[in-house]
Design a protein that fits this description.
Length: 146
């Protein structure tokens, strides 16, 4: 996939070919990479009450609200609370970005969650839902129950 940012970087630096490592070295803050890894690709996931949730998104109050609204259907509670809108991760960004970029980000998150959940909870089976039809790409997960 050709990225506009790397094309612009190549022109800016006068390089003959795209060099993503040079771009990263010159432009990306290590704390940004840490935040993306820690909270997007490999987030803390905890067991809470009857479900598994993104640690930064769960609270007793939120859990109780959705548990009651969804008549105790824990899988649906997990889906709602663990739900991420990919567009919302970039709410500050106002440039036009190819939709394929957002879809690829969601695909990468899906893959990382699949591996991470298997690693973190090896005896549990999780489903990672990736939806392209909602408000931009969305992703969530829930624990499969019998």
């Amino acid at each position: 996939m050709e990225l506009k940012i790397l094309k612009d970087w190549k022109i800016y630096t006068g390089q003959e070919q795209d060099n993503p490592y040079d771009y990263i070295s010159s432009n990306i803050n290590p704390e940004d990479i840490y935040l993306i890894g820690k909270y997007i690709y490999f987030p803390d996931i905890i067991a809470h009450e009857k479900g598994f949730f993104l640690k930064e998104k769960i609270s007793d109050e939120l859990y109780n609200v959705w548990f009651n609204k969804l008549n105790g259907d824990i899988q649906e509670v997990e889906k709602v609370i663990n739900h991420l809108h990919i567009y919302d991760l970039f709410g500050h960004f106002n440039e036009v970005i190819d939709e394929a970029i957002f879809l690829e980000i969601a695909s990468q998150i899906k893959l990382s969650w699949e591996f991470y959940l298997k690693y973190k909870f090896p005896v549990k089976e999780f489903v990672i839902d990736f939806n392209k039809n909602d408000y931009g790409p969305t992703i969530t997960f829930y624990c499969k129950r019998k």
